[in-house]
Specification:
By secondary structure, the protein is α/β, with parallel strands linked by helices. It has twelve helices and 21 strands. Strands 4, 14, 15, 16, 17, 18, 19, 20 and 21 form a nine-stranded mixed β-sheet that branches. Helix 3 packs parallel to helix 10 (about 275-290), helix 6 (about 125-135) crosses helix 7 and helix 9 (about 225-245) runs parallel beside helix 10. The structure holds pyridoxal-5'-phosphate.
């Protein structure tokens, strides 16, 4: 049994500067979570602004010290809101989107269109038209039909568009099957081994208004093991060399994608951004030296690792259930509607009794969500102190792919979101209301 206080045990997964007050109540960004729950209700998503900013600074510092001029695009599918976009702009990040919706929010938040990359394997004609009309910096082309459509749309506008080709290198990223994307059998990108990547390049070079800036890969996520980046980059480097030799095409840009891991649990910590930077830079430099290629402009696309640690989900205990010789459950007022990840990816999390952070936990408890699915379990068999209905449970590392994948299942109301900084909280999204549930109904 652990003798550490929950604050010490969870330091690596909680936001930077997480603390407790003298009563043992968790504090994030200098704000007492009990006060936040009283003011804004639960479930509540709390984002620590300092953690987001520091993470952005670390990324740019670590990658630029390996590769001067390296840039970072936040993968906005992990979580997007205008409040976040403002921070990213101030920190010098660009941003990737995968839909008209994400593009719309990115622009509304003040991101320069030139700093936006448009991804996705199913961009519709309307979405591509919106992207072209908005002046997005790069469209990352995924497949032949998209290439043909873009050729047509840019011809009819007579306006040039920079593109990158997303290549599937055939590398196993060794992560969950639902989040592996670099294998030959993937719905994403132009397969390299089959020759489809090469024919796509040839066609793109013939398109009068398409300017091929370079190549893109994304292997999957989260990549706790950094070796697959080196494998993927070596494969693409070889491809780039062949394309130079056969078609006289020289890459100007390259992206190794995202997938940098996040520490969800205390026993499995993510590599620091510096380790990704060193590994990725080394692989790109090696590829260029080996094949006599020019060093491309590099941009990375971290998503979860930028916002994951900054976010804490705060719930209230609703009920408890003791099943003799079987299991103890505590049910909270949220669950799979705001966090589908345990049900979808078997994701593991930590849980803490947010008002008892000085108490060493001694009961094995399963934290269940309130939704009508047996699979709606947030954290299985974790150590917690005894909890009464109404007490708060915090789940750290909740900033990525939770709000982004939320639903109204069971017609739950979407949670409020607060941004905290220096002891001040600001509501960046209000909680849905019961009337909101009827707004779209005719
Ligand atoms: C999802 C995705 C990312 C970000 O992945 P994370 O695990 O959130 O870092 C980056 N690039 C592309 C193309 C993606 O699809």
């Amino acid at each position: 049994m652990t003798t550490q206080t929950p604050l010490d045990a969870l330091r690596e997964v909680l936001p930077l500067n997480a603390a407790t007050n003298e009563d043992g109540v968790l504090q994030i960004g200098g704000c007492d979570v009990r006060e936040l729950a009283n003011e804004y209700g639960t479930p509540l998503y709390i984002y620590d602004e300092h953690t987001i900013r520091q993470t952005c600074r670390d990324y740019l510092h670590d990658f630029q010290s390996q590769m001067p001029g390296a840039r970072a695009h936040y993968a906005s599918k992990a979580w997007l809101s205008p409040a976040l976009v403002e921070i990213l702009v101030e920190e010098g990040f660009g941003l990737d989107v995968v839909s008209a919706g994400e593009l719309h929010v990115a622009l509304a938040g003040g991101m320069e269109p030139e700093q936006i990359g448009f991804h996705g394997n199913g961009k519709t004609p309307a979405e591509l038209a919106y992207a072209l009309d908005s002046g997005v910096g790069r469209i990352i082309v995924d497949n032949d039909d998209e290439l043909a459509l873009l050729d047509e749309l840019t011809r009819s506008r007579a306006s040039e568009q920079q593109i990158m080709l997303r290549i599937t290198p055939g590398v196993d990223a060794q992560t969950h099957a639902k989040t592996t994307t670099g294998l030959r059998d993937s719905k994403f990108g132009f397969p390299l081994p089959s020759g489809q990547a090469e024919s796509a390049l040839v066609r793109a070079l013939e398109a009068p208004f398409l300017d091929v800036a370079g190549f893109h890969i994304h292997l999957g996520s989260p990549l706790f093991n950094i070796e697959p980046y080196a494998d993927g980059i070596a494969t693409i480097g070889e491809f780039a060399a062949q394309m130079k030799e056969r078609h006289g095409y020289e890459w100007r840009e390259f992206s190794p994608g995202g997938g940098m891991a996040l520490s969800y649990t205390a026993d499995r910590t993510a590599p620091a951004s510096e380790r990704y930077a060193v590994k990725i830079a080394e692989a790109i430099h090696t590829a260029c030296d080996t094949h006599g290629l020019p060093m491309p402009d590099v941009h990375i696309e971290p998503g979860r690792s930028v916002v994951g640690r900054a976010g804490v989900a705060l719930y209230s205990v609703v009920s408890r259930k003791h099943i003799p010789e079987t299991r103890d459950y505590v049910t909270v007022d949220g669950g799979m509607a705001d966090n589908i990840r345990p049900a979808m990816y078997d994701s593991k999390y930590e849980a803490a009794a947010a008002e008892q952070m000085h108490t060493i936990p001694s009961l094995t408890v399963t934290v269940a969500g309130k939704f009508c699915e047996s699979g709606d379990v947030l954290v299985r068999d974790t150590l917690l102190p005894s909890l009464q209905p109404g007490e708060l449970i915090a789940i750290p590392a909740s900033g990525a792919y939770q709000i982004a994948m939320e639903s109204n299942y069971n017609l739950a109301l979407r949670p409020a979101i607060v941004m905290v900084r220096d002891g001040q909280a600001r509501l960046v999204r209000r909680r849905q209301t019961l009337d909101d549930l009827l707004h779209l109904e005719l």
